[in-house]
Amino acid sequence: MTIELVGHDPSWSEQADRLIGDLRCLLGDTVARLDHVGSTSIPGLMTKPKLHIDVVLCPGISPEPVSIRLEEFGYANLGYLHNLKEIQLTRSKGFCFGPRQSEPELSVLAHRLCICRSDCLAPVKRRRFRDALRNNPTLVQEYEKLKQDLIAKFGNPPDWDRYNGGKTDFINAVVEDHFQ
Q1: Strands 51-57 and 111-116, how do they pair?
Q2: Distance between CA atoms of 167 and 135, rounded to whole angstroms?
Q3: Tens digits of per-residue pLDDT, 135-163?
Q4: What are the DSSP E strand ranges found in 109-162?
């Protein structure tokens, strides 16, 4: 097994929109915002085909009960991995679970959800990074090159910690340079 990047697929945005709609229906007024972030949200960027959705909760709502509710829909709860204000969950590729679940042609990629408290800054940073890349093709090329270099070093077999950690300085620099 190795880390593989694929060309951007415009249907990823449609799938993310369906997933966001399903989550909005399921979670209702507990959610302040839902955002498609991560590499699949950036047109033209080669990436792993896995959506990343940030679920920012309303003030006073805790991630724990929300994550437990999502486990009922096939999500694996990874807990508080990198941030004590967000719980990460993953789900394999499969059918939608919302109002259109009876339409079998509507499936959604494997994806990660970050269930974030309202005071968590990580989703703000991820939106800023996404927006900077969406607006700067040179940054897209630089980021793609970095990802390819990291795969060459840490992709076979996958060392996810070193691969993901190798992107941190680039991401932080982009966020700092573009949003001061």
Answers
A1: parallel
A2: 19
A3: 999 999 999 999 999 999 998 999 999 99
A4: 111-116
